Amino acid sequence: MTVIPIMIELAEKKVIVVGGGRIAKRKLNTLLDSGAVLTVISPAVAPEIKQWAEEGKIQWKQKNFDSKEAEEAFMMIIATDDPVVNAAAKEAAPPHCLINASTEAESGNIHFPAHLKRGKLSIAVSTNGASPMLAKKIKQDLQTQFDESYEHYLEFLFEARQLLKQTQLSKSRKEEYLRNFLAESFMQEETQQETLHELQLLATEKKDSE
Question: Residue 23: how many CB atoms within 10 A of its CB?
């Protein structure tokens, strides 16, 4: 299966998880903050899944899967250890549904990469099924390289870029600023604050001239 990396917005989208064990728990943990409408269908679930249901983070239907549950699903995660149930769930998926089949990746059309998130920074690692353990190791290496300071750094880059848009600087000067922001010195909070102050003044000058 040839796949391409893609970021997807799941807010308000209907996501069905068939199964309630360890794999389902791991996939749900990835999706909890996505804004998706999460529904788990399984007679029994892991303690964490039950707790999420009690907290209102997900809906748990304590029952066996039936085809009606798949109606209007934007995404379906098939995560049981029963081949018959897995096949039935895949068969019931709507034509354009995204399907993640945990035990038989080739029968689905999406998979979840190892994912590192630092605020607005998001890094995904995939070996296309060759070695999930290697993907996990690479993620661990990246966690060291891109530590928590990158969360604040990305917030600075975002705010600085927004301020630059409000200035009267030429396109080339704006690009020069953006390139300079990639220097190691801009990882320092003091440098960030000084730069934001400078850009705020430039943005104010434009407003005053209008």
Answer: 19
Q: How far, in Å, are 75, 112, 165, 185, 198 from residue 191 at the CA level?
A: 44, 37, 20, 7, 11
Query: Does residue 133 contact residue 144 with C-beta atoms inside 8 Å?
Result: no
Q: Which helix (H) or strand (E) holds 53?
A: helix 47-54
- Summarised one tens digit per residue, pLDDT across range 92-112 is 999 999 999 887 767 788 988
Residue 144: alpha-carbon gap to chain centroid: 20
Q: Write the burial class of residue 54 (CB in 10 Å: 0-12 exposed, 13-18 middle, 19+ buried).
A: exposed
Per the document, the length of the chain is 210
d(CA 121, CA 112): 17
The tokens of 12 are what? Answer: 């308000």
Residue numbers in the chain where pLDDT is lower than 50: none
Cα(91)–Cα(57) distance, integer angstroms: 27
The contacts of residue 204 (CB under 8 Å, 6+ apart) are: none
If you ran DSSP here, which 8-state letter would residue 113 be given? P
